[in-house]
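Recap from last week: sequence in, structure out.
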Amino acid sequence: MIFRVIFLFFFLNTGFFFGQQLNSKKKRKINIINDPLAPSKAAFYSAIIPGLGQVYSGNSWKVPLVYAAIGSAVYGYVYNKNEYNKYRGIYKRRIAGYTDDEFIDLIPQNEKILKGMNFHKKYRDMSFIFIIGTYMLNILEANVSTHLMQFNVNNDLSFKPIIDFEPISESQSLAIKIELKF
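Predicted structure tokens:
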């Protein structure tokens, strides 16, 4: 009889044992996927649309600077191209014998028209080089900025300029403090 009571006690209580969760108290490890931004993607995006690489890397505040740099170079190119074409047209007409241009009273010599034409040609070419340079700088900046985001920058590695008070001479001096903590 006692055997039956013990058997029924363990048999009826087995449902409680299986209904409990064994892992409920353990902390589950969360797998965080470390997916750093790819510098090559940022460079590619900036090559397609200037400023898109900066948006990709999270530096959206740089986009107006990119467009201001490229826009000012384009403005310089267009302005100098128009002035060059104007001086060139006037020079061609004067060589052909016409004297009805807008600069006949201001610039009577053909050599001065030629100098003005060469001046605007030089700055037109320089503006084109600036357009290419700012475009390439945009791509390079997006690449480097995205690449540098992967580096560890914390207080263990610090460079702090400080104003130090010198108690002996009772004066202030500028000092640089480089601190490495391991």
